[in-house]
Amino acid sequence: MHFEIMDYELPTNFDVVVVGTGIIESIISAAASRIGKTVLHVDSNNFYGGLSSSFNLESFLKLNIEKRKSICMEHSSLNDTETFFPINNSDFTLDEVTHQWNITNKNKNYSDEENSAQEDIIAKEICAKKWLKDDLLKESRKFNIDLTPKVQYARGDFIELLISSNIARYSEYRSITRVLTWFNNTLEVVPCSRSDIFANNKISIIEKRILMKFFTSLDDNEDLIIKDYASKTYKCFLTDKKLSKNLIHYILYAISNSTDSTLCLEGIGNTKKFLKSLGRFGKTPFLYSMFGSGDLPQEFCRLSAVFGSVFALDQPIHGLILEENSFKSILIGKQKIKAKNFVLGLNLTPDFFLNKVKKKFISRGVFITNKSIMDSDNEPLTLLLYPAENDKNPCTVLELPWLSSCCPKDTYLVHISCNQINNPEDDLKHCVKNLFTLNEDFKAFKPLIFYSSYFSIPTNSDENVNLHDFNNLFICPGPDSELDFVTAVSKAKELFLKMYPDDEFLPRAPDPEEIKWDGDEEPSDIAQ
Amino acid sequence: MSTRSGQAQRPNGSTQGKICQFKLVLLGESAVGKSSLVLRFVKGQFHEYQESTIGAAFLTQTICLDDTTVKFEIWDTAGQERYHSLAPMYYRGAQAAIVVYDITNQDTFGRAKTWVKELQRQASPTIVIALAGNKQDLANKRMVEFEEAQTYAEENGLLFMETSAKTAMNVNDIFQAIAKKLPKNEQTAGQGSSGQGRRLAENDTGAKAAGNCCK
User: Fold this and answer.
1) Mean pLDDT of chain A
2) Residue B12 contacts by C-beta under 8 Å, 6 or more apart in sequence?
3) Which residues contact A441 (CB under 8 A, 6 or more apart)?
């Protein structure tokens, strides 16, 4: 919502100013506010989440033209002892977004009436609803399209943090219904639970026994494994365990989300993480937040606000002011705002603090389709871990049904991501070709693509940052290519504890019933 | 979140009627008395210089309607509206909203209309919206006419009352009116949000939704 006038000035003195509303910045904001620090949390965008945000279809289609406002600075407002670091870094913004519609605004005009009648009957069988471009645009607000989709392990650090901090009550989740892999040119369901393994008709009884034995043995010989396989790959370990080709595929590429070069200990760690998360909330280890991954930073911002932080989006953030080797204030509009600590998202960090390392990207594809990649009785929420192929990186495919509140009924929203090699379209084309069709070809039972979009998300990590010993500036890396937010949580915790080493990181927030009010001696009556 | 309703069982096995839980969000400019309205409704209290509520994610209050118990989960803005930075997550799954303005301040009525539009654009299409002209105890300084607000409310299908958190006038009534208008069964209530997810909690391993607490 846009208002023409800024009718309130911001307060000008804080313990912490947080710039950017990505996930790490938002977690730190909540943690600082939670222990009673005064926090100002600002963003130059008029939406929450930065590169972790989600958009409805209309806003998503306009993303390409949204560029960072150019920044002008009134140097007259600086003293002689102050040095100004402008925030004008454009290295870490969204790269060129392409949009392509595969449906038109008008119904196809069939010249051959006989054929048309026949086609209509078949079409009805395949797809209950015929969509036109305008129909999808009319349903724009039912879409929540993630820039950086994330699933969470049910017992991963992120979900544990949500629960232990009591932030989990702000939102709702759905379990991923099934995990798939691509094997021998076809989609296969990955057996997750014990009952899945026994119900699976693609693996023999002997393989089932071997697999169960393998899972239970992972905890046993840890010392031996560390000694013998420290520098060997997980694949080598699995092969030595005399597992069949089938089983190695399931464990390596799906269950442990690994590649041929993943080291043994990492692979074992991933496998354990997967197994540990089974059965907590659903049949697979994964959860997805309703209304998209973009709501996750907002949950932490809400907690931060509930404990008193001041939030202001759409701010003209000019830069940081350094005085005597530490940062003293930040210039927002015409206001100079003082703080003891500054937390910045990497995409808003002054160039001065960035190393010239090779930039890395995630190749992203977004697709709206008419049906699931693999038929199912109910409307599944599917995670497909598509293994590396020839010169292509492994791809993560997340297919969301309308029940996820990310797309309208009778459509599916599909996210594909991989670490970038060339460009998004080229990096993902093998996967897209195998899963979908662009033609209403009734013989191929693949989902039909209505709309597709490709873009690149810049990823970045600590190697990009050089803080030059300024001890009150904390820089948060942007999106990463992990499935979940495990790295984000550990980074947020690390930065918070650097800032406040003696404080607790996000202790449990009280439930409404536990809050003491003035004059609260008498229990309140039920209102009639 | 859609309605979580269920039958409460008494020890002797007889049923006590339905219990429905709804998420209700408050909207409106700073200082129109949003938190005061909630505090009056939930705690029966009023403080002239109400500090913003620290640490409360939401408050709950229960209303009895015939054979149905309606439990409101009432969400306050936590000040995020002040610089127009309310997170969309705030209205997710809300089945009811009270848009508050101050009858002594014309601007806040204008902003209330903007909030109604925002809800109509962003929130569930079946959301029940009530408009509250607060600070009715200051009617001698009135800048927004009752009829003007009432006409606007009628045109937009909103419930409307003038309220006073200070004197408690119409405070319970407006919540009561909302409770009456809300659909009380699963079929009609679920339409707004497209489906019910799961609230995560410790020790929750079963298939039931964690928020399904029918006490």
Assistant:
1) 86
2) none
3) none
Contact A75, A84 (CB under 8 A): yes
Helix (H, G, I), strand (E, B), or coil: what is residue A312?
Answer: strand
Percent of chain B with pLDDT over 70: 78
Q: How far is the first Cα of chain A from the last one, in angstroms, to the nearest whole number? A: 37
| Orientation angle between helical segments A157-164 and A486-499, nearest 10 degrees | 60
Return the residue of A nearest to B43 by Cα: A524
* Stated pTM of the model: 0.89
**Torsion sign (Cα): A147, A152, A157, A158:** positive
The whole-angstrom separation of Cα B174 and Cα B159 is 8
Per the CB < 8 Å rule, is A311 touching B121?
Answer: no
Nearest to B83 among A302, A312, A526 (CB): A312
Chain B hits for A170, Cβ within 8 Å: 57, 89
Q: What are phi and psi of A39, to 5 degrees?
A: -125, 130
Picking from A35, A19, A13, A7, the residue whose alpha carbon sits closest to that of residue A509 is A35
Residues in chain B closer than 8 A to A26 (CB atoms): none
Q: Return d(Cα A81, Cα A39) in angstroms, integer.
A: 26
Superfamily covering domain A13-93+293-357+462-514 = FAD/NAD(P)-binding domain (3.50.50.60)
Residue B4 confidence (pLDDT) above 60: no
- Closest to A309 in 3D by CA, of A9, A35, A516: A35
Which helix (H) or strand (E) is A453 found in, with range?
strand A449-459
Please report residues of A whose CB lies closer than 8 A to that of B118.
1
Q: Which residues of A touch B62 (CB under 8 A)?
A: 526-527
Average pLDDT, integer, range A147-156: 96
Residues on chain A touching B1 (C-beta within 8 angstroms): 172
* Residue scoring higher pLDDT (A112 or A136): A136
Residue B206 confidence (pLDDT): 42
Interface of B with A in 27-86 (CB under 8 A): 41-45, 47, 52-64, 78-80, 82-85
Non-local CB neighbours of B128 within 8 Å, separated by 6+ positions: B95, B96, B97, B159, B178, B181, B182
Alpha-carbon gap: B12 to the closest alpha carbon of chain A (Å): 24
Q: At residue A448, what are phi and psi to the nearest 5 degrees?
A: -95, 135
Q: Do B62 and A527 touch (CB under 8 A)?
A: yes
Q: Which helix (H) or strand (E) holds B15?
A: strand B15-27
When CB atoms are compared, the residue of B60, B78, B193 closest to A302 is: B78
pLDDT tens digits for range A475-491: 998 899 999 999 999 99
Q: Which residue of A has its CA nearest to B193?
A: A405
Are A306 and B78 in contact (CB < 8 Å)?
yes
d(CA A253, CA A234): 11
How do the domains of chain A map onto residue ranges?
Answer: 13-93+293-357+462-514, 95-146+361-458, 193-281
The C-alpha angle with vertex A79 and arms to A73 and A83, in degrees rounded to 5, equals 65
Identify which of A60, A54, A45 has the alpha carbon closest to the alpha carbon of residue A405. Answer: A54
**pLDDT in the model for residue A80:** 79
Distance CA A176, CA A153 (A): 10
| Report for A40-44, A207-211, B52-56: range of highest mean pLDDT | A40-44
Q: Per-residue pLDDT averaged across A507-521, rounded?
A: 72
Topology of the domain covering A95-146+361-458: Guanine Nucleotide Dissociation Inhibitor; domain 2 (3.30.519)
Query: Which CATH architecture describes the domain A193-281?
Result: Orthogonal Bundle (1.10)
Please give the radius of gyration of chain B, using alpha carbons only, rounded to the nearest integer. Answer: 18
Pair type for strands A326-332 and A335-345: antiparallel
